[in-house]
Amino acid sequence: MSESGAQVLARTKARRCLTDIEPRLFPGNGGPDHGEVVEVCGPERTGKTELLYHLLCRCVLPKSAGGLEVDVMFVDTDYSLDMFRLVSIIDSRLTTALSPSAGSDEEVLRSCLSRLLVVHCSSSSQLLLTLHFLENSFSSRPGLALLLIDSISAFYWLDRCEGGASFSKQEEKLSKCSELLGRLLRDYRITVFATCHAIRRIHSGPSSSSSSSDSDRPYLCRSWQRLVTHRLLCSRQASTAGGSREQRTRQIFTVHCSSSTGTKAHRISSFHVTDGGVDFT
What we know:
It contains ten helices and nine strands.
């Protein structure tokens, strides 16, 4: 496929590097670089979506409010994107960070939301078509630096059902999505964050002796696994009996960051969720 001059320029022009997207999550200078993929995984109700909203807000907020001021594409496969919640978080961050002289709140808020593009998918086939469509977006918007997918595992069981007894057929659609995504990462130097639900794999025979932690590990096709460079494993801390009433009722979430690049550094962070979004402890 031939490219226009504008497409070549957009593809080769250096996009905003997101290694500093959230220093409290990643080891020092260990955040995702151009063309890297972060998988946000864990059981339900462990703060994955709130963490994604936090990273999204960090990108679309203006630099004067501590943001990175880059465009974000949000692919919603679970149809769970809560725009009211997202706008509330952005508005709270702006109110805290900006002085009244920085401009009207509505004006700045609209500017933040103009950096966000949202698409919805209801099947792996639609996700594949969406990724093809995104190539035009990356070509025409050099400021588009982050792709968020919530979640990459949404169609896991549907694909398994449609694939029948053939394991390769079960993974075929997601494999094609992963291969196309790999090309977009290479050609346009974007950064990808994707949530992944914990999937229990059923073992049989000798493999049934595998540890419970192995059976709870998120599992997707090898094409996807090869793309992942960082993994954020989210969990929920057990409530403590001691402490103040606020401490007992405030739910604390833990994120274990691991990387397969460079020094393979690790980091463990904790946060709780407030009306204004994620608050690291």
